[in-house]
C-alpha cells in the first residue's frame, strides 16, 4: 500500500498501524493511484486537525477525521503526543475499512505495561483501564492481563533506587542457529575464538566497573545469549567468577542454560557451585518434528533429561520458554508441549508468540514454512494461561515485539515469590541496565525525565575485539559521574 503523508516522519508509525490490519508491504509515495492511504495534518493555533483517507483504484473507500489540542510542555512530549494522535486516527480509519478488531487495539509499542503504569500513576488503575478501553480500543482480556501484571510488579518497581542497575552479560554462541533467531548468535565457533571472546568480555566488565562500581547498586545479574552453556565449562566459570568478584552482593543471579544439547551434570554442578540462583531450560516446543524444522538438533526426552539433572544438582528456580505459533504446529501440538511442562512444574514459564524477525532465516524463506492462522495462535495463548493457572502462576511481565503473529504478546508467568527481577526491570525500564558483550545494549535510566539513553555495543565479533576500549568508554561516559544521576542532561546533550 502506498502512504501519501504530509508529515513523512510519521511513516514508521503509520506503517506499523496499517500492517496490524493488513500485513502488506507499505511504501512512502506521492503517487495517488492504486491502493493508497492519504494522511494530512494541519496545525492550527491550538490544535492539530487530521484527515486520513483510503483510496482503491481512484475510489474513496473510507475516511476518518480527528482533532486534538496541542499540549503544552517540552517539544519531546509534544512530539510523542502528536505521533500517538496520528496513529489513533489511522487506526480508526483501518478499523472502519476492514471491520476488524484487534486484541491490543491501537497499541503498537512494545511495552503496554509501561503505558498502564503511567496512566495508573495519573488516573489510578481504574482510570488506566478506562483509557485503554475507550481511547486505545484494547480488549477486556488484555486489560485484565495488564491489571494483574501491574499488581504483581508494583512492589518490585516501588523499591527501585536511582543507583540501581541490572547487569547483562552476553555470550553470543549457539550449537546451531534456530530458524526464527535474529539475535547475535554465532554457531560452529572454534574454542580458541570463544576463549578470546571471554578474555575480551572480562576486560570490558572490569574496565567499566572499576570507575563506576562505587556509585551503582546491583539488583540482578543475567548471563544470556546466545546460549552461555555453549561455552566450555571452564570459560563459563571464568565469567561467573568475574561476576562475583565485581558485582557481589548479587541479589539475583540467572544463567540462561537454554538448550539441552549444551547441558549435562558437569555443567549444572559448575553453575550451582558458582552460586547461580536461577536457570532457564528452554524447550520452545517438545514436538520432535518441530524441533527439526526450527533447527534444533536434539531428540525427544532431552528436555526432561536436562530438567531432571538440574533438579538433582539442587536448582529450585527454573524457567522454561515456549513459543506459540512455530512452523507446522497446531494448538493440539502446543497443548502436548504444555502438558509435559505441567508435569515438570518449573517455577517460571515464559510464553512467546512467534515473531518473524527481519534478520531470521524464517523471514527469508517464509514461503517454505506453514504458519498457523492467528486464531489458532490465540487459542495457544489461551491454553498457556490454563497451564499457568494449573501451575499456580501469575503473569508478572509482558512485552510485545514487532512482526509478532497477530500482534499478540509474550508473557512471563511465575509462582509467587519466584519472579525474576531482571525481567521486570528490563521490560519496565525504571532502572539502568549495564550490558557487556557483543551486541549488548546498555541503558541508563533518567528518573527526572522518565527516559532512557542507550550505549550499544558493536555486534560483529571482530569489531568487538578491536573496539573494546571504545565500548568501555561509551558506558563510562553514559554513566558520567559529573552528570546528576537524577537526570536532566546526558553526555551527548
Ligand atoms: S538458541 Fe536462542 S540465541 Fe541460539 S540460535 Fe536459537 S534462538 Fe538464537
From TrEMBL:
SUPFAM superfamilies, per the entry? Radical SAM enzymes
Q: Which CDD domains match?
A: Radical_SAM
Report the record's Gene Ontology biological process terms.
Answer: porphyrin-containing compound biosynthetic process
| UniProt keyword Oxidoreductase, yes or no | yes
Among InterPro entries, the record links this protein to: Coproporphyrinogen-III_oxidase, Elp3/MiaA/NifB-like_rSAM, HemZ, rSAM, rSAM_horseshoe, rSAM_sf
One Gene Ontology CC term in the entry: cytoplasm
Give, as one word, the top-level EC class.
Answer: oxidoreductase
A molecular function (GO) held by this record is: 4 iron, 4 sulfur cluster binding
Q: What Enzyme Commission number(s) apply to this enzyme?
A: 1.3.98.3
Spell out the coiled coil positions from the record.
none
Tell me which Pfam families the record gives: Radical_SAM
- The UniProt record lists the keyword Chloroplast: no
Entry superkingdom:
Bacteria
The chain positions of domain Radical SAM core read 159-394
**What keyword terms does UniProt attach to this protein?**
Oxidoreductase
The protein's name is Coproporphyrinogen dehydrogenase HemZ
- The organism of origin for this protein: Gehongia tenuis
What gene is this protein a product of? hemZ
Amino acid at each position: 500500500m502506498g502512504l501519501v503523508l504530509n508529515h513523512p516522519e510519521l511513516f514508521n508509525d503509520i506503517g506499523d498501524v496499517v500492517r496490524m490490519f493488513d500485513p502488506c508491504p507499505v511504501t512512502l509515495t506521492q503517487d495517488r493511484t492504486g491502493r493508497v492511504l492519504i494522511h494530512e495534518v494541519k496545525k492550527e493555533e491550538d490544535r492539530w486537525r487530521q484527515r486520513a483517507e483510503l483510496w482503491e483504484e481512484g475510489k474513496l473507500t473510507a475516511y476518518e477525521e480527528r482533532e486534538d489540542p496541542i499540549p503544552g510542555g517540552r517539544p519531546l512530549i509534544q512530539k510523542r503526543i502528536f505521533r500517538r494522535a496520528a496513529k489513533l486516527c489511522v487506526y480508526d480509519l483501518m478499523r472502519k475499512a476492514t471491520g476488524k478488531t484487534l486484541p491490543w487495539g491501537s497499541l503498537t509499542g512494545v511495552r503496554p505495561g509501561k503505558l498502564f503504569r503511567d496512566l495508573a500513576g495519573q488516573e489510578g488503575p481504574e482510570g488506566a483501564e478506562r483509557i485503554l478501553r475507550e481511547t486505545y480500543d484494547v480488549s477486556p482480556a488484555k486489560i485484565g492481563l495488564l491489571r494483574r501484571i501491574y499488581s504483581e510488579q508494583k512492589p518490585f518497581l516501588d523499591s527501585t533506587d536511582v543507583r540501581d542497575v541490572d547487569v547483562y552479560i552476553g555470550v553470543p554462541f549457539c550449537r546451531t542457529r534456530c530458524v526464527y533467531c535474529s539475535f547475535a548468535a554465532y554457531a560452529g565457533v572454534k574454542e580458541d575464538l570463544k576463549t578470546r571472546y571471554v578474555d575480551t568480555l572480562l576486560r570490558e566488565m572490569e574496565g567499566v566497573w572499576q570507575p563506576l562500581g562505587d556509585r551503582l547498586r546491583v539488583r540482578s545479574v543475567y548471563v544470556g545469549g546466545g546460549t552461555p552453556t555453549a561455552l566450555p565449562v571452564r570459560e563459563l566459570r571464568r565469567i561467573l567468577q568475574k561476576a562475583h568478584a565485581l558485582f557481589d552482593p548479587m541479589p539475583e543471579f540467572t544463567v540462561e542454560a537454554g538448550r539441552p544439547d549444551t547441558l549435562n551434570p558437569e555443567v549444572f554442578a559448575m553453575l550451582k557451585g558458582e552460586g547461580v540462583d536461577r536457570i532457564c531450560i528452554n524447550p520452545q516446543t517438545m514436538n520432535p518434528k518441530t524441533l527439526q524444522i526450527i533447527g534444533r538438533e536434539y531428540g525427544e526426552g532431552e528436555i526432561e533429561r536436562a530438567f531432571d539433572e538440574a533438579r538433582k544438582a539442587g536448582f529450585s528456580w527454573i524457567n522454561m520458554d515456549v513459543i506459540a505459533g512455530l512452523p507446522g504446529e497446531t494448538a493440539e501440538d502446543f497443548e502436548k508441549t504444555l502438558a509435559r511442562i505441567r508435569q515438570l512444574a518449573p517455577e517460571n514459564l515464559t510464553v512467546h508468540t512467534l515473531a518473524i524477525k527481519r534478520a531470521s532465516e524464517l523471514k527469508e524463506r517464509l514461503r517454505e514454512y506453514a504458519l498457523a492462522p492467528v486464531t489458532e495462535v490465540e487459542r495457544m495463548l489461551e491454553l498457556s494461561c490454563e497451564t499457568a493457572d494449573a501451575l499456580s502462576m501469575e503473569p508478572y511481565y509482558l512485552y510485545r515485539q514487532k512482526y509478532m503473529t497477530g500482534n499478540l504478546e509474550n508473557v512471563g508467568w511465575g509462582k509467587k515469590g519466584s519472579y525474576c527481577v531482571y525481567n521486570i526491570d528490563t521490560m519496565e525500564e525504571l532502572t539502568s541496565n549495564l550490558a557487556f558483550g557483543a551486541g549488548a545494549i546498555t541503558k541508563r535510566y533518567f528518573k527526572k525525565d522518565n527516559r532512557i539513553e542507550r550505549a550499544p555495543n558493536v555486534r560483529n565479533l571482530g569489531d568487538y575485539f578491536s573496539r573494546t576500549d571504545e565500548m568501555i568508554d561509551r558506558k563510562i561516559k553514559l554513566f558520567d559521574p559529573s552528570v546528576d544521576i537524577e537526570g536532566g542532561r546526558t553526555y551527548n546533550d
